[in-house]
Write a structure and sequence with these properties.
Layout lengths: L3 H20 L3 H19 L2 H11 L3 H9 L4 H4 L2 H15 L4 H14 L4 H17 L3 H14 L6 H15 L18
Helix pairs in contact: 1-2, 3-4, 4-6, 6-7, 7-8, 8-9, 8-10, 9-10
């Protein structure tokens, strides 16, 4: 995996050659080179491996998504800050099936690095709320659930939030113990 700066250097060189093509009168070549440079600038801000991992997750192919994410060897050097957030977010989604502790670590790191879409941030906080509830940290789960509800402006997570609230209510209800207190029967008559 190349350093993220190489994409900008390549885009700059292509733009310089496009300007040369414009000065020589090859307008079509110059326009095509400008579009090619735009692709490299786009991939600077949106990493190609993360996009491919999202496509695999959309098809519920966790192994394929993991394969694409594993191609990113050093996220700090090859990704900008928001991309690092999505890198950790995707790892959190994939790991949450097996290991809640690792998923919690990934989701917290993704939130601290930042996610550009409010829906993704709401989903990360909703997952953290579920993990906190599973670990019996109800207060933290309630706070995270309220934050997720505020971030979900389009109502895409309404069902999940409603289910999480119902689960929290069930967890707060006291357990009923039937037959715990026995009444004494009246003695037998002889």
């Amino acid at each position: 995996m190349y350093n993220k700066i190489f994409k900008l250097i390549i885009a700059g060189l292509i733009i310089a050659f496009a300007v040369y093509q414009f000065t020589e009168g090859y307008i079509g070549n110059g326009i095509m080179l400008i579009l090619l440079a735009a692709v490299f600038v786009f991939f600077y801000f949106k990493n190609e491996f993360i996009l491919l991992a999202f496509l695999r997750l959309r098809k519920q192919d966790f192994e394929g998504a993991k394969k694409w994410l594993n191609k990113i060897k050093s996220p700090e050097a090859s990704l900008v800050k928001k991309q690092q957030g999505y890198y950790n977010y995707l790892h959190g989604i994939m790991v949450s099936q097996d290991n809640m502790n690792a998923a919690e670590k990934y989701f917290k790191k993704a939130i601290s690095l930042g996610l550009s879409m409010g829906h993704d941030l709401a989903m990360a906080k909703l997952n953290l709320a579920g993990i906190a509830m599973a670990k019996r940290r109800k207060r933290e789960a309630q706070i995270l659930l309220k934050e997720a509800e505020k971030l979900d402006k389009h109502g895409m997570l309404n069902e999940q939030i409603k289910m999480m609230k119902e689960n929290m209510k069930r967890a707060q209800m006291p357990n009923q113990h039937f037959g715990g207190h026995r009444q004494q029967r009246p003695g037998k008559r002889r």
